[in-house]
Amino acid sequence: MVKKPSSLLSFRRLLRRSLSGRHYRRTTSATAARTAAAPPHEKLQDRTVVVDVEGWLLRSWSPLSAFPYFMLVAVEAGSFLRGFLLLLLYPVLCLLARDLRLKAMVMVAFFGLKEKEVVRISKAVLPKFFLEETAMEGLQAAKKAGTVVAVTAAFPRVMVEGFLKEYLGVHAVVGREVAVVSGRYVGFLEEEEAAMERVGALVEEREEMKSKGDGAVGLVAAGSRVHHVLSRYCKETFVLSEAEKKAWQPLPRDKYPEPLVFHDGRLAFRPTFFAALAMYTYLPWGIFLAVFRSVAFGLLPYRVSVPLGAFTGMRSRMIAGPSPDATKKQSQTSRGRLYVCNHRTLLDPITVAAGLNKPVTAVTYSVSPVSELIAPIRTARLTRDRDEDRRRMAALLARGDLVVCPEGTTCREPYLLRFSPLFAELTGEVTPVALETRVDMFYGTSTKPAAKWLDPFYFMMNSRPEYRVEFLEPVVTAPADGEVGGHGHSIQAANRVQRVLGEALGFELTELTRKHKYMMLAGNEGVVKGDAKK
Asked: What is the reported pLDDT for 322?
């Protein structure tokens, strides 16, 4: 069934407005529209503020500024082929009028996609790129308001709602809807007038909910498509000139209203037309590089594969190493050494093994059979049963060196997730390994179960992927004399190792877990069904 605004609901609102004697007319007063880069605080406090998303919250805006975001939807929710079709359409888009251009991009990017997947992409992928374009001054002005209603004329509502509500704290979002049939988008965008009519109804409802209605305030840029709408429904409208907007600064990461800890998607760059064209031109060579590098690391010894990888553009930077005294002490025992590292990609244990130039075993929870098959090191599956996992890890450590990533999942941003304390119960001393990665085109991580086996290949497809590996001084995890051991002590030891890695990397420590990540990005707990391999 096609989703569209209810005409009955619109008639009811019109009738109620007429009976109550409240009418919204275009303001003609000379003081109704004001030019101000930042409205006074008292003008916005405890009032309903209607803000123009493109004109006030986003820094730079041009007729084709929306193209990269539609490209992200086409590639991440659809496929690289769909993105290529949108890229081919770009010369035609430049010739079309604004409304026809928007409808054409919606048709190509949305047609046939599942509604649920587009909603996921709008929450998991797009916020990172929107935050990078958010204007600090515009957001600071909007945050002074009691209630914020965001209006967009350049995007369908579904593309911006997740970003505006979850990261900027907007209370309501008004934008054009895309028709849906049986859970899939058919690509038809509703007319702009229908969306703009909902602005007045929403402002009226917000004002009626307040005991003191002072009238809504509009924040809009000069020449914006929503300027006339805000002038009609708002008591006061503050207009931002083009010269003032050019002086606005991007929002620093430490000023984000909500920290960007998790995000998904393969593209690590903003796919403007020229950037996307460069990516598709490079793609065949990138696929060749990924296959060549994977074969080299899978079949050749590290003393050959590492220089060969460097010859193709891969960069590895090793810093320091295990303490000689600690290594000597460990070699005098029959047990292996436990290496504890933060988790950036599935290649983390392989990179540690290459840095040590000796075989190690990596423990995992949910690695695809393909990744296990091509891995040049031994991998062992865990079961998520604490006692069984402890027994397996102890047996593996007794036979040789072991690499664990106690975060339990990867994190792209400069944050450390909460460490599982199980590793601290296995041995009295561990070696922390600080890992940091850099990519220029593709992310080597994903939350889609069907695509996780491609994670290493995407990392290898980058023209100059980089790994920075730092072996830190060993950390004692055994209880001190007179200190009580047990689960409580292992938690403290795990937190101590987390702090050591955080200080070495300059990352912020969090209490977030794998469950938080997958609930936010994929809508599930990140548990792959099926028994662990014995």
From this structure: 56
